[in-house]
Design a protein that fits this description.
Helix content is 26%, strand content 24%. The protein has 406 residues and is α/β, with parallel strands linked by helices. The chain has two domains: 291 residues, Aldolase class I (TIM Barrel, Alpha-Beta Barrel); 94 residues, Sandwich (Immunoglobulin-like). Strands 11-8-7-6-5-2-1-12 form an eight-stranded parallel sheet. A six-stranded antiparallel sheet has the order 13-14-15-22-19-20, covered by helices on one side.
Length: 406
Amino acid sequence: MRTLFASFLAALLLLPGTATAQKADLAQTPPMGWNSWNHYGCSIDEALIHQTADALVKSGLRDAGYVYVNLDDCWQLSRDAHGDIQADAQKFPSGMKALGDYLHSRGLKFGLYTDAGEKTCGGRPGSQGHEFQDAAQYAAWGIDYVKVDWCNTGSGAAERNPREAYGTMSRAIAASGRPMVLSICEWGDHQPWLWGREYGHLWRTTGDITNCWDCIVNHGGWFSSGVLSILDRQDALRAYAGPGGWNDPDMLEVGNLPTAAENRSHFAMWTMLAAPLIVGTDVEAMTPAIRDLLANRRLIAIDQDSLGIPAMKWITVPGLDYWAKPLADGRWAIALLNRGDSPRAARLDWATADLNDGLKNRQADFKKTRFRLTDVWTGQAAGTTATPLERTIGPHDTLVFTLDPA
């Protein structure tokens, strides 16, 4: 009988309209904030979160838009006799409610991690079978953002149905009465871009990112990927993202990559993708250059543009990619990415260039309209489309320009 009921419940949750998340006014632009995992892993505690929150405020990153402070795995320890999730009291002696109050007092929002399985990736209690209970607890703590991972969800025929899993959490959040962003983190294994918008606000398109330019790292049972490898998988998914629901190519490794050019390119291309901008480095210890990169208001404006259209890969020549992103008011952003290990010369002749985004019905006719170019890195004027754009781009670096109708 229990098996029959479970099958009925799973089928019910897959019906259209039965499992939609509370969507009102959430994630109308890609979420921005910080997450603990990339830099700290399980080594998190209350003092670190306080320090990070203070650093976000002091550095100006909060005012630049980075408002979510998200604790990843290992904040939780057990469940009590009633099944309520409990934080690790040694790491978080004041409790989650007090931590949320602190973050909110600083003008920030509070995010937590859980898992769709019975255990998280770190072996802590997951939410399977406790979704409504956990969501109610999160609401009581003042949570604003929930990331739901996909570890320990079974395999093969025994694997949990992801639409049932995320649909259940979506319904639980709605029932809690508190609006929360729902981050779907099943690593793109079940094409969440096709169904994620029904339940959540962003969905991972790949496995985990790692802090390298172009690599695949084998961890035994799973793989992590470098910036370029993840970027190359995004263009085909651009149709599915937009206000209220976003492709998520994973958190930022800006500040963790070895060269200034790689940090620049990583951040620039994530803004071109209209990706969530979730910082994954030590905010308190970041260099002024990394702080200025993350706070670049022109790049952030590209990411947060009201149209919410991800960039398309426009032109490809050996070692060099040209990406183009439609912006509001007839504007465009273009990025010239040097994929290789040596400088490359780039030349773009606007007189023969055809910039047509057929998928989103956007076009720039350079024969009829002249555009002014602005260098996004410096904010300086960079000529117009009346003459070709010619630049040399350093290894692994990216040039970004906005185009405004003259």
